[in-house]
Amino acid sequence: MHGKRFLIATALGALFGAFCAYGTKMSSDAGELGFVATTGIIGSVFYNRLLIGVILGFMGRCKPHPVIRGAIAGVIVSMGLGITPLLDGDPMGMVILVGAGTVIGIVIDVVTTWLTKEKVTE
After folding, report:
1. d(CA 28, CA 50)
2. DSSP 31
3. Against a cut of 0.85, is the pTM above it?
4. Which residue blocks in 30-90 are alpha helix, DSSP H?
5. Residue range 10-69, pLDDT digits in tens
6. Model confidence over 82-113: pLDDT tens digits?
7. Strand, helix or coil at 13?
8. Backbone angles phi and psi of 30, in degrees to 5
9. What is the CA radius of gyration of the chain?
């Protein structure tokens, strides 16, 4: 594992986590979510996005292209958040959470790969 890759990916995950947690809080305060975003929910959103970065920091030597690798990590980790709205009868909430996690995973992996100048295998 490259320490530089791990630090960059984790920092990007924390940045996206803070952005998503802030967005969740603001949307909740505006009444757009249909539920109150408690401190636990805000923390879960932040931790979920941070975890995407941590996992991608460890996956530097995996073979898939960074876009594929980032998308897979984003979907797998975001399902932890997405399962709640799905089971509560809001499948669109799951699609939004998992979709955002997929995009975040792709961005984190592509940017991290570019900044660490890793070779991309096709």
Report:
1. 21
2. T
3. yes
4. 39-58, 66-87
5. 999 999 999 999 998 888 888 777 777 788 889 999 999 999 999 999 987 788 889 999
6. 898 888 888 888 898 899 999 999 999 999 99
7. helix
8. -85, -5
9. 15
74, two tokens: 């984003």
Cα distance between residue 58 and residue 56, in whole Å: 5
User: CB–CB of 108/66 below 8 Å?
Assistant: no
């940017």: which residue's tokens?
Answer: 111
**How far, rounded to the nearest angstrom, does the alpha carbon of residue 63 sit from its chain's CA centroid?**
20
Any idea which residue has 């909430």 for tokens? 93
**CA–CA gap between residue 1 and residue 119 (Å, rounded):** 14
Distance CA 47, CA 50 (A): 5
- Report whether 10 contacts 50 (CB < 8 A): yes
The burial of 54, by beta-carbon neighbours within 10 Å (0-12 exposed, 13-18 middle, 19 or more buried), is given as middle
User: Letter for the amino acid at 57?
Assistant: G
* Contact by Cβ (8 Å): 21, 42: yes
**Are residues 41 and 80 in contact, defined by beta-carbon separation less than 8 angstroms?**
no
How many alpha carbons fall within 13 Å on the CB side of residue 115? 17
